[in-house]
## 1
Amino acid sequence: MEFGSGGGQLALMLQSAGYDVTATDAVETFLDEQTRIGIRKVKRFNFLTDDYDAVFDDKADLILSWRNPHLDIEDLEKLFDVVYHELNDHGLFIINF
């Protein structure tokens, strides 16, 4: 699962390597681009405002949050809270900002 996939390049790379990836974003034009480039699973999701359980059926094995320089300290706290509750016990969280 990638939170804030933007144009979808990372999600597409992981999908091409054989991973079951869900690309997410809150911006409709990014979702359209993700679909256009061939990402099979695209979902509208904003971890700041949306209820994870209302959008997804299962906890994630991997959550990526890549290149999100616009996040402030409260946003990061919310991100870590969502990850804490929605990542599988032995899952992996990778963040870059």
## 2
Amino acid sequence: MSTTFPDLGSVSQWQEELYKHLHEHPELSMEETETAAEIARRLEAMGYDVQHVGGGVVGVLGNGDGPSVLFRADIDALPVAEATGLPYSSKVEDVMHACGHDAHIVCALGAAQALAESRDLWAGTYIALFQPAEETAEGGRSMVADGLLDKIPRPDVALAQHVLVAPPAGQVATAAGPVLSAGDSIRITVFGKGSHGSMPHLGVDPVVLASAIVLRLQGIVAREIAPADFGVVTVGSVQAGTKSNIIPDHATLLVNLRAYDLAVRTTMLEAIERIVRGECAAAGSPQEPTFEYYDQFPMTDNDADVDARVRAAFVEHFGADRVQHLPRIPASEDFSVVPDAFGIPYTYWGLGGFTADQTPVPNHNPGFAPAIQPTLATGTEAAIAAALAWLTKE
């Protein structure tokens, strides 16, 4: 460990206890009132200038002239019934921290305290941002809409991390360029004409129409996206009708898509609407389909220079054997909303959460239970090391 690195002794004393508390008391997206209050209380005690913004919390700590660094942690839980069997399992029915955001909070608070207690080691401004509603892609936009850009100093760079099933616990992984995909969900309603099951010729069957759409959508990636490009179109739900002998008057499809290239994303969105409208016309649908876009996540595209600087800091602090390459992950995240609003570069890295004696369980699974240590210690150190890549005194 570098001799200029903060002493984490006082931080490690409370982190595990807070982690267990947060895990026991998860809160859903845009409902994180107690979580936000706990974060604000702790930041204020550390000496940060604290504000509640758009459902989240921001703490600003000025320490003389120098760069301004924003470190973001997401704070919401998921509508998942926990099945880990942990002694500190969620006490909230059908809600759990199944994505590691409880660890993100604790690591970010640990970094905030360590930097507050070691101001002789750095200069500039440190911004600890705790964002709500990452899981629904609402939180970053909510904070920006609530005036975030005018309420805090403009950062020079933004940083974030996420607990993952790989690399192994105790390691970090990072990469330049697109690391998380853009993601969109679409609620599509197509319309038919109701009739009795014995008289299909008097109706327009939206079940048959929806089935044709599902099959046609599979041709988008196979035939409209270049083989070298990445794209996914998934129909996760088809709902229509209530009884076997009634032809309903509408059907609803829930469609999700993923892309690492915004041009590919545009191609898929345009193709979905074209195919749906075309199938509706072919079926003689009595009215135009409707499209409701929701849970729209931007792509996470790490700045090459920022990523290189963070990787170098990680190698210096952890050693090269604990710093891995982060492969592209076709999941989505709204972290980039805030740095994009400021017009600043960013990077986002992975944090190992499972030890060699554990069977890794994927994020969002009811059994998701990362090892408390060395995950919290590694995440805290990674946040500090990355921030000090800009803030360390010359």
## 3
Amino acid sequence: MKFLFVHQNYPAQFLHIVRRLLKQGEHDVVFICEPNSNIISGVRRVTYEAHKRPGPPTHKDARDFALAMARAEAVAKAAKQVRTLGFTPDIIIGHHGWGELLNLGDVFPGVPLLGYQEYFYALTGQDVGFDPEFKVDIESNSNIRAMNAVNLLTLTNPGFGQTPTHFQWNTYPAWARPNITLLQEGVNLDICRPLRPKRATTIAGIPIGAKEKLVTYVARDLEPYRGFHQVMRSLPAILRARPDARVVLVGGDGASYGSRLAGTTWREHQVAELGKTLDLSRVHFPGRLDYDSYVRLLQRSDAHVYFTYPFVASWSLREALACGCALVCSDTAPVQEFVTHGETGLLTPFFDPGALADRVVETLEAGPDVLERRSNARLWAEQNLDMGGYLDRYEALIAKIAGRPIQEPRATRTPAKVAASRGKPAATRRRSGG
């Protein structure tokens, strides 16, 4: 089959399915994206010019939409170049959030499109207004409504949708859900697995003693959307109760989802708020880690804290389950889909740092119940997050939408047919570089 993938940040959520398709050795894979340094052998990449979010005189509520339309135009232009070179996909797969897919039906009429539907914004009941510490004024309502402009266009544009969790599926209007498939994403269980390293170890330059208890927290950025402020406020009590505890908080100093602070970062803000009550000799901020160090940290962790607003759940929660971490998580809807209190982890109120501290200290005791929760977390991951099963379901969805199987039956597959499917003679067929 011929596949056209689209995402500004290649390969994004499509890394694993692209690898699966390439491994099968009989597909053409083209990827339209903004320029970056990522390379996957076998993928033909077509780039489009990156665009900046417009400022005045564009109305403030229309700026994201204007950027999305510029992306849609640029991607359609790139797709026309691909078509001119003789490539017409059997299916188009991409992320709807950036607007990139909006005009592809004009370039490839009749080609089925499968779009990743990540989140539908609402004025109440989800992330907006969840945290009373950060007031939402009525003037922001128009901007929140406008954030769904691209969402609404994608839902009325012919095509099919996919989303990875029940929580995300339920954010969409009831009339739209029947056309959005729930496709739970997977984790590489061979990499993310329980593997207790030597108790005395050094990870990301941080020495961790053999007798020390390690408390971990991971987010893309250290910000309130991922409960960073509440986690920080729990630390003085944890460190007082456990003189043998060391805390590592992984994440950047940006703001992936919420607002930034003027002139400072959320990390600096929380450190200043806690002042001398926080023993910084036992609290570490290594920034973002390479993947190997990150997995090793999860594997060494004695208590792993995951907090989030009612928003999209992080990949780190899935990976922590797969590593069999002793989880202490916020009692919020996205987390409840993954963690059952007392079975695969402990849930605690988002707005109660004292209760969070108690749960972490309880977990650091490492009694039989903690070991059982660790084992249950891994078992749940094996039953629900297996990468192979996820990709099998992904292939089945693609086949259903495209109206044909991903692979021919083995009896009918010959080198000549495989080569023909990729548009090259059998004797000269080679995989194109990135």
